[in-house]
Amino acid sequence: MDNAVAEIAKKARVASRQLAIATRGMKDAGLYAMAEALVDMDAMILQANKDDVEKGKENGLTPGLIDRLTLTSERIRQISQALKDLASLPDPVGEVLRGSTLPNGLRLRQLAVPMGVVGMIYEARPNVTVDAAGLGLKSGNAVILRGGSAALESNMAIVSVLSEALESVGLPADAVQSIDTLGREGSVALMRARGLVDVLVPRGGAGLIQTVVKEAQVPVIETGVGNCHIYVDRDVDQDQALRIVVNSKTQRNSVCNAAETLLVHREQAATFLPSVVRALVDKGVTVHADDETLSVVGKMPGVVAAIDDDWATEYLGPEMAVGVVPDIDAAIAHIGTWSSGHTEAICTTSLAASEKFTSEVDSAVVNINASTRFTDGGEFGLGAEIGISTQKLHARGPMGLGELTTTKWIVMGDGQIRE
Amino acid sequence: MDNAVAEIAKKARVASRQLAIATRGMKDAGLYAMAEALVDMDAMILQANKDDVEKGKENGLTPGLIDRLTLTSERIRQISQALKDLASLPDPVGEVLRGSTLPNGLRLRQLAVPMGVVGMIYEARPNVTVDAAGLGLKSGNAVILRGGSAALESNMAIVSVLSEALESVGLPADAVQSIDTLGREGSVALMRARGLVDVLVPRGGAGLIQTVVKEAQVPVIETGVGNCHIYVDRDVDQDQALRIVVNSKTQRNSVCNAAETLLVHREQAATFLPSVVRALVDKGVTVHADDETLSVVGKMPGVVAAIDDDWATEYLGPEMAVGVVPDIDAAIAHIGTWSSGHTEAICTTSLAASEKFTSEVDSAVVNINASTRFTDGGEFGLGAEIGISTQKLHARGPMGLGELTTTKWIVMGDGQIRE
């Protein structure tokens, strides 16, 4: 392992022991100190960010990436407010999850405790740096951040501000550290820091997440890829279904919980497809239609023939694959083949269909008569969101602060031995 | 990925969909059918096992390994009974873990659902083959087993018996499959079967577990290594502490929850060490003593000087490292440096010491005045035990059937869209 990363990880481990026993009051004071320091040091951070943005433009970053990279006073104020909002959430640490008294008198309690050292690897969004530091602190974890070279100057400035703020209220400065200056090698070393990093959370595009999952030797929580489906059943309220499909696709199309594929029961195809395709096209969506859909809606602008790849694609944009299925089993099978396991929805008036769909579709979130766009920690009432897990180990679906904790059994005896 | 493993994993996926919706009644019928088939086909299994044992002896397996490998009619009867016992446990699938109604009227429920496809890699113990199949079935998962070449014939015989038994009661034969004939390559392919295997559980020695953790690209639950400590505090009931130390070390010394290191507060050293070292030596334990311990107990048979490696060693045998610490902080620091995070115990009469120890020691299980030997799914009342997790992600400490499940959110609406 890279020595520089090992040194940082060891300092994080020491800091994590202090954070693990910090009270909620101390952690919330840290969140406020960080929030205020960001606003106080606003000029220094904006200057560093300006350097990143200029370099990004020279290097030909897309306007979208430049926008994500760019900080303003107003954005810093929002990021700062988000830290204060975190302080208002309950402390996930110390919750008693289960307990019992055994026949021999041993008293068992299982408590939520911090993970310890959490690594985060993400792409050039300086706001995630603050976000990760805040979530880590509130859940009692030290964080090691790797934020992508395009945001190097911004992240270094932010981490130094946050670190000093923590120190100013008696919390360890090493609770928030960056390995951004260590480049790609540092990133790989972090993925392999067995025994030093308790969990690694990649946040970003599918490529980043795949790389981390494949190279990591530390436990990983995979987040985010959402190839979400809506199935419109034979028994359906077409008006309601139309609103749900349009909302799921177009309310915001660049996010993981936007719908990417619409499957329509054959008996509804003739009446539902013309109106839904028209509504989507009117909203600027390109419809990738299968043969049966094409034969129903005919040739029209905004509609193209679907290819196999369309079923596998998370468009993250104004495009939707549309197909006809003979029955609910075919819809469930299609979803089983192509879904990324994020969110799927059924539009139906049938109790039997809703029960079948929710029990047989194997995804993190399964909706009945509701937009896929609700899969979100904030919408679910979890408070802060770490990300949306698409794996099955540890966390599945929207992750709140509780998902950054693990457990500890406390066994209280008065001399019990095993016979 | 190895094609043969991919084929097997795809069949497991199909079977897992059937198991996920199987009722408890169907799964318990499967457990009984497997239990009865093992006894009925006893002669065929014993013949296959005899071949393995003979080959093992030719290959120079140790008597301990030969013993673990060997089946008898009586052992088959016990294994069969264990399957029936599993049937009596509650079904972990379908439990509602949380739920709420959102301000917009959406009703949320988070349910326990099966993982899907569970891989198990273990060493030459044919009983684990049955155990894994039973645990998998009860938790609604299909299993893919890789049991080590020394038990090849036994495992093939057992898997064919179990598979046929499942089919006889209308459950999918592919719910239990083996990749034992595919050798080392098959094993590596299983570790890399991303998207086909939901979780991989290695069971066995430290070497096996390290290999799996490093090579796997699928999520892994790390089990078992236990370098467990007992700290005897300044304020202590010496008689009770003596019983706990001797029990923790000697009640069964080949298991992961046996204690490996004893740390004694300096103020107790002069009075406690002579009696505890004598008691350990009388039970046949070799004591690896640090300088201070040596100077207290003097030269005696069964006591040798400790070296640094002793603090890191899981002896799994009649040996124990013994050291003196100046205070509880030093004990906690020692444990933080050397422990594998399995189980640690404190012997104390002080409330403050017990609180400090339980809050600052970062292990799966922390005991106050109780033997380390209690860290066990059966002892904890969890019913069946999958293993003891020493990682923090997903499960920590003894794992019951519930740890072979993940969750699914069901969101019930009546047309909600996101504004």
From TrEMBL, chains A, B:
Pathway: Amino-acid biosynthesis; L-proline biosynthesis; L-glutamate 5-semialdehyde from L-glutamate: step 2/2. It comes from the Bacteria. InterPro entries: Ald_DH/histidinol_DH (IPR016161), Ald_DH_C (IPR016163), Ald_DH_N (IPR016162), Aldehyde_DH_dom (IPR015590), G-glutamylP_reductase_CS (IPR020593), Glu-5-SA_DH (IPR012134), GPR_dom (IPR000965). One of its GO terms (cellular component) is cytoplasm. GO terms for molecular function: glutamate-5-semialdehyde dehydrogenase activity; NADP binding. It catalyses: L-glutamate 5-semialdehyde + phosphate + NADP(+) = L-glutamyl 5-phosphate + NADPH + H(+). Pfam families: Aldedh. Keywords: Amino-acid biosynthesis, Cytoplasm, NADP, Oxidoreductase, Proline biosynthesis. It is an enzyme of class 1 (oxidoreductase). CDD domains: ALDH_F18-19_ProA-GPR. Its EC number is 1.2.1.41. Belongs to the gamma-glutamyl phosphate reductase family. Catalyzes the NADPH-dependent reduction of L-glutamate 5-phosphate into L-glutamate 5-semialdehyde and phosphate. The product spontaneously undergoes cyclization to form 1-pyrroline-5-carboxylate. HAMAP family: ProA. This is Gamma-glutamyl phosphate reductase. The gene is proA.
